[in-house]
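#struct-pred

JT: dropping the chains for the assembly here, can someone run the whole complex?
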Amino acid sequence: MSESTDETPAPLPTDQAAVFCAHLRAALRAIRLNLYYPSWRAISDHLAGVGHLPPDQDNLAICPRTGWPAPNEWLRFRIDHKLAPDLIAHVRRAADAGDEPSAQKAAYLQHLHTLTPMREPDIRVALVNIDEEGETRQGRFEVVMDRWEPGEPSFIRWTVRVLDQDIGDRISVNELEAKATTAFKRRLQILAAQPALAAWLVLWDDPDIRVEELVRGQVGPVQHHASGPRLSATLTRIANHLSGIRVDDPLSPDLLIPETDNRAALRYGMSHSRKWAVPESTLTKQRTWLNDQGSKNLVYPYTA
Amino acid sequence: MTHPIDEWKAQLTGPVNYQTTPLGPADLESRITSGINEHRQRLQDLTKLKEAGHKLEQDVSASLSTMAPESSTGVWARLPLVGHLFAKEVPKEPLSESLWVRYEQALTHIRNLGHHLELMERDLALMDKEIRALNEEALGAIQDGVLAAARVAALEALDIDISIALKEPATQASVRIELNGILDEITSQSWNRKLEAERFRAAAEADEQLLDMQRELRRGMTELHRALREIHQSGLEAMAGLSPHMATLASEAAARDLANEAATSVEALRGTLTQVCGLAHDNAIFIEEHLDSVTERMRLLDANSAERRKAQEEVESALALARGEVGERIH
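RK: done, full complex below.
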């Protein structure tokens, strides 16, 4: 690693918390997350609320494993945003009576109201095309599932292209409102907690569908440095039209691949790579470090 | 005989330095009436606050109970993974998802309770200010009543002096006319001053009543605040104990979900495990290695939860007692 990141980040005092979150938001904008990643804007908007601490909180806790603000901080913003409409009238009444702490709280709740927490992630299904072979109609679907792991915390988008081998007459050519069934949704939610390759191999065995491509885009972790946080994001793509295994990730050089090489039988190839957003002042140093690791990861500079 | 007419006239028009702002009788009455109405409203608000506090208490207790494992008979055999301990039925969502949903719900209730406790503290602080202000007002009204009564007594004494002077035969006719005029003025002023004294006395009594009601309100709110704070503290401690383990529990739950999912299609499991040998093997080892530590952790959580439930029962009975007392006072 270019600089030591082994220390557990200490909780950040209020003023540093706001700066830290502002840096992260700049990094999210700079890292150019495409449609295979969760919406950077949704994460950024939520971070604005995370960095806005309530008057009775002195510091922002940091998750030691991922470097993001701790899980309870993400939940705290979402919860207070939900409670604010009921609370604000009562708090304002006390503030109008001249109570200073209530005035500060009213200002905090008022500001929260202008921010947008992340919504509950959902599974979206889009019909790509329909193949009609004889009497069988096969539908090709793209399933997109965003996943927010509060425990890490981590932000992941799964994009899975599957061929449903017999859709009968349920789906029309112009279908715009395809939805995942409860059983399939549950299956995806379970598999989403596993590594990408495990999910691919389990889906491969599903008799009802044929998985053609699986892409996992993850935003994080965050590394803390004196010059500013360094954000990275990984993209794992597994598809039957890829050949070979390509892994370019200095943070996970030992990505687990099954020892038995049945890839030919399983017909998949895999590519996994990471990209970075770092403070502009450390751009050269980061590139040097990546070169030393033999990595071709992209690095984007940001200024907060 | 000379009479001190000028001195007697000066006594009629001398200033009275009342403590409270000069109020006419109508103003005093309307202020007393509005004060009583305001307190009636506050007592109704306290009833609503009690109900809201009771609901919050129930929400927090319910959330905490969904996060705590079921109490066992004390025999902790080799248990399957944590899944069924967190819910009485198999959840429709995967356990790893519903675990976080329940965690967030519990945190929401506890945080909501925390916000309301802060509001109550602010209200109690404001109440203290109002009690002090009412106290000073009551004292002022008492002093003003004393001054008004003294004024009445002074006028009555003046009345006697003038009546004596009128009875003296030596008093000249012109002086008698002036003295009769002063007597008429005394009669008029005495009536007004007596009315004032009565109003001040009534205001002082009403202020005392308002003070008593305010103090009762404060006592009721303080009891409610204390009981809710204990529940809040208990909730915070429970979440503080749970939070560091959530990530581990969630990954254990995810492993359990996968095992359940695979178990429903054995052939798929067999085929998958053959191919995902490294990953499934790791998962199986993970499950085996952590089962004992999960079992032990559940046993400790259960012991803590029994203590917490005992503390909660004590709080609930104290709260019921406080509610009963306040309810009697309100009604």
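JT: nice. Chain B touches chain A at residues 92-94, 96-97, 100, 103-104, 107-108, 111-112, 115, 118-119, 122-123, 125-126, 243, 246-247, 250-251, 254, 257-258, 261-262, 268, 271-272, 275-280, 282 (CB under 8 Å). Helices of chain B lie at 5-13, 25-67, 95-167, 173-263, 266-275, 277-330.
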